[in-house]
Amino acid sequence: MAKQLNLVRACGFTDVETIGFHDLPLLHLTQQVAQSGLTVRSAHFDWEEFESRFDDILTLLDLLNCRIAVMPWLVPKARPVTIAGWQAVAGQLSCWAARLAGYGVRLAYHNHDFDLAGRVGETPLDLILAHEAMYWQPDIGWLAVSTPDPTALLQRYAGRIISVHAKDAAQGQGDDRWRNLGQGIVDWPHVLRILGESPCSDLFVEHDETLDHVETLRTGREYLMTQMSSEVG
Description:
The protein has helices at residues 2-10, 26-36, 47-52, 54-64, 83-101, 124-129, 140-146, 150-156, 188-196, 213-231, and strands at residues 15-19, 39-44, 68-71, 106-110, 135-137, 164-166, 168-169, 178-179, 203-205. By secondary structure, it is an alpha/beta fold. Helix 2 links the parallel strand 1 and strand 2. Helix 1 (2-10) runs parallel beside helix 2 (26-36) and helix 2 (26-36) packs parallel to helix 4. The longest helix has 19 residues, at 83-101.
């Protein structure tokens, strides 16, 4: 983790989003972040971590002075196959969101593709965001390859967007379709104009399977900075 944080800092970033506990004691993890000089703006925790380590999540967020938590993933065997099942998932997320809110922490849901399937108003994402306590962290890459009009979904829930994963994609299947920012099919000027009218405060550069971490980080940062200067100001 220390090497990852130092690489990110060397590429010009000042803020990051963490994922889980990295199999480290909480103080050790916090010390590594502090030594890197980076600020943790947001933290991902899987469903199982919310179920079994909720108090540790609260402690880590407090140590990191981080006020945004994100639940990004359900393993395939845990994903409901009915609307009622997803409503139950959404209800549990809302309960966790209410509990976190008591500590000044906002809870967001991060989409992939499985949670975008279904009729309008009945997708897992729709059911989750039906709860006012929940925020949304859109994964722009997954929206681009999973929905006919990604910007329509962003506009529908613009008021709930707390941050995004800025990821680009090409047509195709599997992890081969992911691209560095500006090298795929995402209409970033349109996306950034929508985000500029939303509460979104962070754009996290992401590439699921990059072969060159430095190029991905530097390209992503430079591309977003240039686009935001012209589209958002």
